[in-house]
Amino acid sequence: MSPTPSTTDEILHLDHLTKHFPVGRGLLFSRQRAIVHAVEDVSISVAKGTTLGIVGESGSGKTTTARMIARLITPTSGSLRFDGVDITQCDGQQLRALRQRIQMVFQDPSGSLNPRRTAGQIIAQPLRVHDVPGDHAQRVAELMTRVGLSPEHFSRYPHEFSGGQRQRIGIARALALDPELIILDEPVSALDVSVQAHILNLLDELQRERHLTYVVISHDLGVIRHISDEIAVMYLGRIVEMGAASRIVDHPMHPYSAALVSATPSHRGGRPRTRIVLGGEIPSPITPPTGCAFHPRCPKARLISGDLAIAPERCRLSTPPLMPGPDGRMVACWYPVEADDNLVDAAHAATVTVD
């Protein structure tokens, strides 16, 4: 199967993508293995040359989704089409060819760079692995210059660079094969705040120069807002809200999105947002709640029910599908956030959740 170009500007399409991980045995003497519901029924479309940001707490499934897109792990079910081809069916030489078009930049540059190889060797490795013809040393020098490193650093080892410089090495390595799609998993979370803006600006410049498509994974909605065209908010393996970045950040419609937005500084420099502090922790993906997975922590559910100890029956028993909102976004919530909702007080009052 050879890749065939898509007839639209869509470069990536996830259709009902699901990933389950079997873990050890369940209860004592049980013969059934427990299942981690890491990603459930995720459908996303990404246009060429744009950036999709995927945001959520740890355990929301965003990194698992990224690794499926990169074909580092295989989905349990669903399809993943890249430039019109279902890449979940690729293997062998097809998968090798795919690696040249999809690259990944990892969260921790210290852990993702081989400490026994020099910067030049690390950047040149994809060229060697894929038997790319030409002068590799010249190509590496060009890449190092483009990401803000000096070619004189060719022979230095990763420990001799700062965190920001190591991440630039990772970006240069990802660019070596001229990919079309780059997946960035928490690309600046391990860096000082003063360095983060420089890396984000570099990524923006590279995207415009090379017409790259990005999928950016982060728990930081401020970072996602800065770099993304579209945002997908994930909670316990599911997308709960998806749409234009500015709309979601300025006017979140899902209560979970509203809580994430409340924790980020105002990008317009206005008065600080009032924090919506959610009670409890994200539930276990082994035993996810029935109905809406967010209902045990949802302040809007408490407002609707009028009972701070229990959510409405619809939230507890029925899983909301992604439904179109009034401005084109998609929201998975039976009772989307409205302008006059006081989620701050509801979250503060609901200190005990028992359903």
List the helices and strands and how they pair.
Blueprint (H helix, E strand, L loop, with lengths): L9 E16 L7 E15 L3 E5 L6 H8 L7 E6 L2 E2 L6 H9 E4 L3 H4 L6 H11 L6 H11 L16 H13 L5 E5 L7 H18 L2 E6 L2 H7 L2 E6 L2 E7 H6 L4 H8 L36 H7 L7 H5 L5 E2 L5 E2 L11 H7 L6
Parallel strand pairs: 3-8, 3-9, 6-7, 7-8
Antiparallel strand pairs: 1-2, 1-4, 4-5, 9-10, 10-12, 11-12
Report on this structure.
It is a single chain. This protein is an alpha/beta fold and 355 residues long. It contains 13 helices and 12 strands. The strands form 2 sheets. An 8-stranded mixed β-sheet has the order 6-7-8-3-9-10-12-11, sandwiched between helices. The chain has a 4-stranded antiparallel β-sheet with strand order 2-1-4-5. α4 packs parallel to α6, α5 packs across α6 and α11 packs across α13.
